[in-house]
Amino acid sequence: MTSPLLTASGIRKTYHTRKDRVEVLRGINLSVDPGEFVAIVGRSGSGKSTLLYCLCGLLKPDSGSISICGQHVMGQSNAQLARLRRDHVGFVFQDLNLISALNVADNVRLPAKMAGIHASNGQVDAILHQVGLDGMGHERTDNLSGGQRQRVAIARALLRRPDILFADEPTGSLDPSTARSVMHLMRQTVTPGSALIMVTHDLEIAVTADRVVVLSNGISNDVLTHPTVEQLFELTQEEND
Ligand SMILES: Nc1ncnc2c1ncn2[C@@H]1O[C@H](COP(=O)(O)OP(=O)(O)OP(=O)(O)O)[C@@H](O)[C@H]1O
Ligand SMILES: [Mg+2]
Q1: CA-nearest residue, atom 6 of ligand 1
Q2: Disulfide engineering: 162 pairs with which of 80, 84, 90, 101, CB 3.0-4.6 Å?
Q3: Which of 15, 56, 93 has most ligand 1 atoms within 8 Å of CB, for mutation?
Q4: What digits encode the pLDDT tens for the residues 122-163?
Q5: Residue 164 pLDDT exceeds 80
């Protein structure tokens, strides 16, 4: 029997602002096996990004437990968490976080560099090839199209061959045809030993996942295996009623 790459149970998170408290996650449970592609859907503001940040150890939940590749996330020091992320996790952020002062290759190299790891030109070239950006290492990211910028963000997350790739709306700002090719690339990143956990608004994309988590009112009552677009549409509509 294979062990899950990620397990999360009872994840709760409340944001406190000066005026308000927003109870975003109210007890989320999830387990992801090697080779799986899991999509997370839910209306805007339902807590998808918050959940993804908690799952990958970038944001501390108020309670609950998470383990990544058999290692507990809670109770770890910041340095231990950074090491866990460095060794096992890749993240494609909702707002890409590319640095316009750096060229494509240096953007791809940056997280490894910050973790004190040297990525050779050959490694960077190979990953740029994998995402279809051959020979573009010296381009400024400002000069790229939306789809190309998204590919840089994916290349950066893939450079260290993460066990779990987390992606927050990787196709959100792309036209349908570019979104299709980026999704093709995202799916190719899933190997028998690794997993992809992706937030998306696009139900057509969500149904191509192995399982879909529907986030509603801070809980994930519905975790569906190969649902139809109609099923997901109904569930995501219900929560708006
Ligand atoms: N740092 C924060 N401080 C206070 N409230 C926050 C913070 N981050 C998010 N929120 C609130 O928590 C809720 C969930 O936010 P989150 O970004 O996780 O939603 P989301 O499902 O990813 O939305 P979208 O689909 O628009 O990206 C929202 O109501 C948001 O306003
Ligand atoms: Mg979000």
Answers
A1: 15
A2: 90
A3: 15
A4: 999 999 998 889 999 999 999 998 889 989 999 998 888 899
A5: yes
Phi, psi of 95 (to 5 degrees): -105, 25
What is the sign of the dihedral through the CA atoms of 3, 62, 82 and 128?
A: positive
Beta bridge partners of 9: 65
Q: What is the spatial distance between Cα 18 and Cα 48, in angstroms, rounded to a whole number?
A: 23
Whether the Cβ atoms of residue 156 and residue 91 lie closer than 8 Å to each other: no
User: Is residue 131 a contact partner of residue 151, using CB atoms and an 8 Å limit?
Assistant: yes
> In this structure, which residue's CA is closest to atom 5 in ligand 1?
15
93 CA distance to ligand 2 middle (Å): 9
CB neighbour list of residue 168: distance below 8 Å, 6 or more residues apart: 48, 49, 52, 91, 92, 93, 94, 198, 199
Alpha-carbon 56 to chain mean position: 8
Q: What are phi and psi of 85, to 5 degrees?
A: -65, -45
Nearest atom of ligand 1 to the alpha carbon of 53:
18
What domains does the chain contain, in order, with CATH numbers?
A: 6-238 (3.40.50.300)
Atom of ligand 1 at shortest range from CA of 51: 18
Distance 142 CA to ligand 1 centre (A): 27
